[in-house]
Design goal:
The protein contains one helix and nine strands. By secondary structure, it is mostly beta strands. The relative contact order is 0.20.
Length: 131
């Protein structure tokens, strides 16, 4: 009888764990039109995740922080809301961007940061979906 109770309690706890909202986020980060990195990140609803990539030979650092959550929108079914902070440093020049984007799961969105001269400096293409 003890083994049946143990199996039942494990099954119930697995169901509760599986119901948490996890997101898979695919990123493609461009600087001056050139692909810099294309990581995939996994996030839990409402928790901020951070990625830092440094290339010492190219003297550059890319940082991004993302928080994903569900959002209702009349035109986007099952929308995913992302709060995104990007920072890119190359040759001692630092660029920063803080944005929000609302995505339909599986569809690509783009966040751009423009320099004071009007030139696109940073571009982040992002796709998010629920796991």
């Amino acid at each position: 009888m003890k083994s049946v109770i143990l199996v039942l309690s494990l099954a119930c706890s697995s169901l509760a764990f599986a119901s948490s909202q996890d997101y898979e986020i695919f990123l493609r980060f461009y600087a001056d039109g050139k692909l810099i990195t294309s990581p995939t990140m996994t996030s839990v609803k409402g928790e901020q995740i951070e990625l830092v990539q440094t290339s010492t030979d190219l003297n550059r650092t890319f940082k991004t922080k993302i928080m994903a959550s569900d959002r209702e929108h009349p035109n986007i079914k099952d929308a995913i809301h992302l709060d995104v902070e990007m920072e890119f440093e190359m040759n001692k020049t630092k660029y920063k961007s803080k944005s929000e984007i609302l995505l339909q799961p599986g569809n690509e969105g783009t966040i751009k940061a423009i320099s004071p001269e009007g030139k696109e400096t940073l571009s982040l293409k992002v796709v998010a979906k629920r796991r």
